[in-house]
Amino acid sequence: MNRDTAEGKFDQFKGKLKQSVGEAVGNDRLANSGAADQVKGAAKETWGNAKDAVHAVADDAKARTEVKHAEAKQHAAENAHDVREKITSTAQNVKNAVSAKADEIKRDHKRTA
Description:
mainly alpha, 2 helices
């Protein structure tokens, strides 16, 4: 509950009290003032509730964004790991192929020498 909501509830309570007293003593001015306070309080409370709803939606959106950011960061880290694994695996395969060819050339050279 925010300040506007609390003030609105108080204004409504105060207005009901003023209206009741005004009607009880036959004072239309006081009763009308109480009714006006109730309307003012209802408007304030409604405004406060709307602000609370906006804050709740904003907080939810922020939380969802943070989760998506964390997921994207994790996905990027996993992709980076996969790319590094592919690069090192390819380098190892090239090394093995070159070594095998070099060994083959050495064997052929020894036979002809």
